[in-house]
Amino acid sequence: MKYRIKIIKEKTPDRFTGRYKQHEIHIEREDNDEHSCYGGFYITVTGPDGCYCYDGWWNPYHYASIDEAIQEALIGSQLISNCVKVKIRENNIHFGLKKGEIYEAKPYRLDSEKLTLLKRIPDGYDPECNCYRHEVEVVNDV
Questions:
Q1: Quick one: which of 34, 38, 82, 121 has the fewest CB in 10 Å?
Q2: What does the alpha-carbon distance between residue 73 and residue 75 come to, in Å, rounded to a whole number?
Q3: Cis before residue 122, ω within 30 degrees of 0?
Q4: How many CB atoms lie within 10 A of CB 53?
Q5: End-to-end alpha-carbon separation of the chain, Å?
Q6: Which residues pair with 45 in a beta bridge?
Q7: pLDDT tens digit string along 81-93?
Q8: Largest Cα–Cα separation, the chain
Q9: If DSSP states are collapsed to H, E and C, what string results for the chain?
Q10: CA 69 → CA 2, 76, 84, 90, distances in Å?
Q11: Is the model's pLDDT at 36 over the cut of 60?
Q12: Which residues pair with residue 130 across a beta bridge?
């Protein structure tokens, strides 16, 4: 994912305030067991019209860095996409995937070694499945 935040007002390991595409981003880590055993982040992203694009807790399954929280804020507010185009390496009879087919995919949240296949390109067929990263070749960002 490629993005560059040009206006950074504050950035520490536990706090971030900045602007991206005219959106105000504020992130703060809460080391509180009530929200996450790893310390969740409270994230707000406000659009130029004052409406919230993201307002809530992000509780990663690991101790996340402030950079990961920034990425979550941008993806969650739909300012950037975390989707990629992938090519199937081998036929998969179980899921009906054929070698060479191209799919739009995104990271599977519960397992960093997997991707969720969203739709086949060009017809939009949704296989409703996940696959391991070694089973596909990344073609490029969507």
A1: 34
A2: 6
A3: yes
A4: 18
A5: 10
A6: 25, 54
A7: 888 999 999 999 9
A8: 52
A9: CCCCCCEEEEEECCEEEEEECCEEEEEEEECCCCCCCCCEEEEEEECCCCCEEEEEEECCCCCCCHHHHHHHHHHHCCCCCCCEEEEECCCECCCCECCCCEEEEEECCCCCCEEEEEEEECCCCCCCEEEEHHHEEEEEEC
A10: 15, 10, 20, 35
A11: no
A12: 116
- CB–CB of 131/111 below 8 Å? no
Please state which architecture CATH assigns to domain 84-141: Roll (2.30)
Phi, psi of 69 (to 5 degrees): -65, -35
Give the start-to-end residue ranges of the domains of the chain.
7-76, 84-141
Q: Taking residues 96-121, report their average pLDDT.
A: 92
Token pair in block for residue 76 = 């969650």
Q: Looking at this protein, which amino acid is placed at residue 29?
A: R
pTM above 0.70, yes or no: no
Residue found by looking up tokens 């739709």 in the block? 119
